[in-house]
Design brief:
DUF2911 domain-containing protein; signal; single chain; 2 domains; two-stranded antiparallel ribbon; mainly beta
């Protein structure tokens, strides 16, 4: 009798571990997030540039000056901080950026945006108080660019890399950043 009770207890414990691992595995499936992961990769000025980010959707919301406030540092996406990587030194908006991996933050504005390349990587995009994890002391480069109206509406935020550099496209806005 004691042997049967121990066997049932062991089976139940193993079943609990199995179910827990399935639930955790689903929770860790980043593709199931409301803002799923995305990657943009391309060659610019002889360098391979990659942007890894989470892609939020408009979902009928006011994005610029609403969900994403003007004049405040933004993690430039959702979830983990967006990562910008270049395998060679590049010139971004006339300023040198060494080869490496950076967290990409922005300060959106109605007429100008500040693009921030920060050496600290691997962090979640915001703190518990919803402020960003950007630490100005770790900023490697800040450049200012001008946003333009996009050619079409983009429900999901995306990055596009082409011969001129990269651009963030979301809603009715495009934020081009030149690379040479």
């Amino acid at each position: 009798m004691k042997k049967i009770m121990v066997s049932k207890g062991l089976v139940l414990a193993l079943l609990g571990v199995f179910i827990s691992s399935l639930v955790l595995a689903q929770a860790e499936d980043k593709s199931k997030r409301p803002s799923p992961p995305a990657t943009a990769t391309g060659t610019v000025a002889g360098a391979t540039v990659t942007v890894d980010y989470s892609s939020p959707a408009v979902k009928g919301r006011k994005i610029w000056g609403g969900l994403v406030p003007y004049g405040e540092v933004w993690r430039t996406g959702a979830n983990e901080a967006t990562i910008f990587e270049t395998d060679k030194d590049i010139v971004v908006e006339g300023k040198n950026l060494p080869a490496g991996k950076y967290s990409l933050y922005t300060i959106p504005g109605e007429k100008e945006w500040v693009i921030i390349f920060n050496s600290k990587t691997g962090q979640w995009g915001v703190k518990n108080d919803e402020s960003t994890t950007e630490e100005p002391a770790s900023d490697v480069l800040r450049v200012t660019v001008k946003p333009v109206k996009s050619a079409s509406f983009n429900e999901r935020m995306k990055f596009v890399i082409d011969n001129n550099g990269f651009a963030l496209d979301w809603e009715n806005l495009e934020v081009p950043v030149s690379i040479k």
